[in-house]
């Protein structure tokens, strides 16, 4: 993991491989005039006051996500300066948006792969700015190297098998106050949060031959011992004994059986309990309702919800939040075989309800249903489930935005506001009562499929059936942003993104502070 330091050095005296400064587009400028962001003063002085002019000559526009590299002049202790675009100069208060800072730092850190140390002299007008820059840089420096750093007998000694560069080793944040308790706390939070988001990314990126229900449970158990989290793992025998028909039904076609993992972080002074439920389909073939060609290759990511829940519980423990956070990981492989659940089969769920399975590729809601019922038994103050649940949500909101459904409008609004605050794109979605009728079954209490149109909302309505009476509940469908198949941008890498972790951690913090009622 990339190290983070609050540097006491100035931009002119820092010794590093590179120095990152911010550049923006002048407000109301038709010619695209560049404005140097606060933090770049010493660098501009080293350029004789002509840094903006030099950058403009090189084609820099100050657009968000743009990076311009140039050799450092005499007067600086670094060989390279990187100007990171921040977008338009803020018109209000001169304060840059936290997400703009986060993305600029992330893009720069990603471009500095292979470097040992880089200084980040982006504008720090507040503790929140410092935290955003640190968080963005640490997330941008991420790389999944577990399957690339091993010995390659055909490669020269010490060479990486695919020639990949290791992530930036150290982020030195300039402009913060290293001896100030608030800045120290912000740096510690940024480091803990980034490390847990990157842990979630690693899990999502791990190939399914190595990450399956039992091995995922082992990872959770090890983390629990390290961070003082109580972990309980229900294996196949325990699931049969407990009557977890949803988990068993989805997992019965696989050679490796399902698991239900409970992670419980408790604080002695906590007054609230938050339950988080994550869909953990470690590989989704679609089962007997096999996915068509071209849709299987990335299905290792179908456990991203469970990864987000796991990372959130560990982050809560590391941050010592004054709230009890319980995570439920509903883990299974969805495979076709002679023992697999068939379309038309009826499953008896943990709640006692029966479900007619009309499509075995609508499996996530089945494992979540059992976990939601089990979580409800402990009567938490609120439950949030997280899942890569439906392609319909991707069609509705695209690849970068997750949907939020809830049985309480105020709770849904709070989560939406939190997500926007931390820089995760989301949108509140309804649960139309008229769509429930489409899941009526002549055979069972409910079917796992309903109307095709509004399929993401239908899935939410199905899940709502398994939430305990009187418990505030929200459902996050992260099918779009959980796995990024395009080119990296900002602090978002190719592959697993760690979607929803920042939202869930902030939700836990708000709950601890009593801000959610």
Short summary:
This protein is of the alpha/beta class. Helix content is 32%, strand content 20%.
In terms of per-residue confidence, which ranges show pLDDT below 50 for 5 or more consecutive residues?
A: none
Separate helix tally: 14
- The assigned structural class equals alpha/beta
Overall pLDDT: 95
**Which word captures the global form?**
elongated
Biggest sheet: strands side by side, in what order? 8-9-11-10-14-18-15-16
Explain this structure to me?
With 517 residues, this protein is α/β, with parallel strands linked by helices. It is built from 14 helices and 20 strands. The protein has an eight-stranded mixed sheet, with helices on both faces. Strand 2 (18-25) and strand 3 (34-36) form a beta hairpin. Helix 6 (213-227) packs parallel to helix 9 (304-319) and helix 12 (409-422) packs across helix 14. The radius of gyration is 24 Å and the shape is elongated. The model has no long low-confidence stretch (mean pLDDT 95).
Provide tags for this entry.
alpha/beta, 8-stranded mixed sheet, 7-stranded mixed sheet, 14 helices
Topology:
Layout: E1 3-6, E2 18-25, E3 34-36, H1 41-46, H2 51-57, E4 67-71, E5 80-88, H3 98-111, E6 117-121, H4 127-140, E7 170-173, H5 181-205, H6 213-227, E8 230-234, H7 236-242, H8 245-251, E9 259-265, E10 273-284, H9 304-319, E11 324-334, E12 346-348, E13 354-356, H10 364-376, E14 382-387, H11 391-397, E15 402-406, H12 409-422, E16 426-428, E17 446-447, H13 455-464, E18 472-477, E19 483-484, E20 495-496, H14 501-513
Parallel strand pairs: 1-7, 2-5, 2-6, 6-7, 10-11, 10-14, 13-17, 14-18, 15-16
Antiparallel strand pairs: 2-3, 4-5, 8-9, 9-11, 12-13, 15-18, 19-20
Helix pairs in contact: 3-4, 4-5, 5-9, 6-9, 8-10, 9-14, 12-14
